[in-house]
Structure formats: C-alpha cells, structure tokens
Design a protein that fits this description.
Elements: E1 11-14, H1 20-31, E2 36-39, E3 49-56, E4 59-66, E5 69-73, E6 82-96, E7 104-106, E8 111-116, E9 120-134, H2 136-140, E10 151-153, H3 160-173, H4 179-204, H5 213-226, H6 234-241, H7 245-254, H8 259-277, H9 283-289, H10 295-306, H11 310-320
Antiparallel strand pairs: 1-3, 2-5, 3-4, 4-9, 5-9, 6-7, 6-8, 6-9, 8-10
Domain HTH araC/xylS-type: 217-316
Organism: Pantoea coffeiphila
Pfam families: HTH_18
Amino acid sequence: MSRPTKLYVPHELDAADIPPDERYLRISQNISCYGIDVVDDRRPEEIIAQHKTISGAKGDFCSAYGSRNITVFDPHKTAQSSLYFSLLLEGSQIISGRKKSSATEVTSGSLMVHERNDYYTYRSDDVRQLYLIPDIEAVKAIFDGKLPGPILSMENHHLMAFMKSHMMLLHSHSASLNAKSTSLILDGLHDMALLMLADVAKETGLISTGSLCHVYNAARSYIAQNYSNPALSPDHISLRLRYSRSSLDRAFKEQRTTVMALIKETRLIKARELLENDIHLRIDQIAWRCGFSSSFIFSKNFRDKYKVPPTVWRNNFNHSA
C-alpha cells in the first residue's frame, strides 16, 4: 500500500492475515513507497511480517517485525533521498553499501540515524524495529550533505531517552490513543528529531548556514508574526526588513525554498491549529485569519498539504476526542 492518507491513525499489515501465495506481493507493496524492494528468499508460508505505519503532518512512524529477510534500497525508485531514526528492539541487522567494506551492524537497543542516498542492502534476522521518518524537506532546512556513514549512533545525545520512550509509547499503545493524543506524541517526536539532527549537523559540519542565513532568519521571523496579512509578499518583506528583493530571494534559495512557499506553509500550520482548537470558527473565518484571499484558495491549499478538506480534518479530530 502507499503512504497512508488518513493521518494519526495506525495502518497495520500482518502476513498471518494474508494467504501465503499473496504475502510476498502484499508486503513488497507495503514498503515500495519508501524505495525498498524485498528479496524473495523465503517460502511463502514461512514469511512472518507485521507492519504498522502512523503518518502525520511532519512525517511517519513505523514499526516492523519479520522473519529472516533481505531488503534493498534503490535510490532510483524514490524521488529523493531519505533519512530516518531507528530503534532495534530484537534480532540482528547488517547494512551494506556497494562496497563490502561499508557493511555495518546495527546495535540492538541503540537509537540510530540512517541516511538513504545510495544503494543499501539490509540483512535482517527476526528483527523488531521502530522507525521515525521525518519529512525530508524539513531535514534539508537543517543540514545539507551526507552523514559520515549509513548509520550514526545517537546514544550520547541528551534527547536520546525521550526519543526512545516516546517511540516505545507509540509502538505499545497506539491502538488506545485517539488522533489528538497521537498527533501530540508523533509531532513532538519529529520536533525532537529535528533538534537532534541540528546537533548532528553542527558536529559533522553539515549545517546549512549560508552567507545570507541572517536574511532568511529575519524573514522567517517576520512571516511568523505577520502571516495573517493577506498583502504579505516578497516585495512587502524586503521593504519592511530593508533588504533588497534579490538578497531575499538568494537567501531563500540557499535554504532550497522560496518566500511564498514559507508563507503558505506557515499559514496552513496556523489554520490547522484553529481547526483543531476552535470548533466555532467558520472555514471562511479561518481562511481570513490566516491570510488567505478566499476560502476556496485556502481549502485547495489545505487539501494539497493534508490530503483532506479542512472540514474533514476538523470532524476527524472532534470525533476522536
């Protein structure tokens, strides 16, 4: 299956519920959206696999358990590279690249960061593993470049215990959590993940500062304070901050985004908060408060980002509460 479109709700797959002759195909389809292929090296009736995915606005959480298997990441089968956190609870796993010398064994019980930007083969034996997969665009805003290797230990980071405990919480109790509680935990995990990655960037020299980072930071702060102004635009910001329009555009280009993209992202996040926390506001009122020129444009942009109309998002959260 593709990445779930219903956010903050567990989507589960268990090979035991699938006829043996369909297991390999169904399991392969389940993870193909991440650029992963499963090597068919087991008899169908011997395949054991349990997958759970919870998708959120800031990224995904996954848990997986399976019998001995080999999976391969092909960078050509996904639109961009990916980076994720993992916590190996049981079993053993070896990750290797094109060179045999690059093979690395994942340590059981350790919190690791993985980067997929080349061919990797994963040899797993009775593995139970948790994954946190942040949005790659959010990752790019923090650092640019490659990690020193396919995995990097986060065991010495001061947020390590928080990450482990909350990943375990989602793994063990997701079925009893409503969508609001799940969103708080999952979004918090992704926020913590970005903080940890920012520290990784500083330590490994991958931080994406740029010669015009001060312009970008100033503009981002101004947008956060003035997103409700429908006249907010690159020209407006450059005039208010007294930077040239060309400097502003170059600053955002360094961060691989645009002024208008950040304005829209900020407005949509604020609109989502209003939908969840103020059930009495009409959709057109929310659109106006968040700086959209019309409720039609707001609804279209909201659907593009969150995959459902604003009213459906609000109803889902109210129902789960």
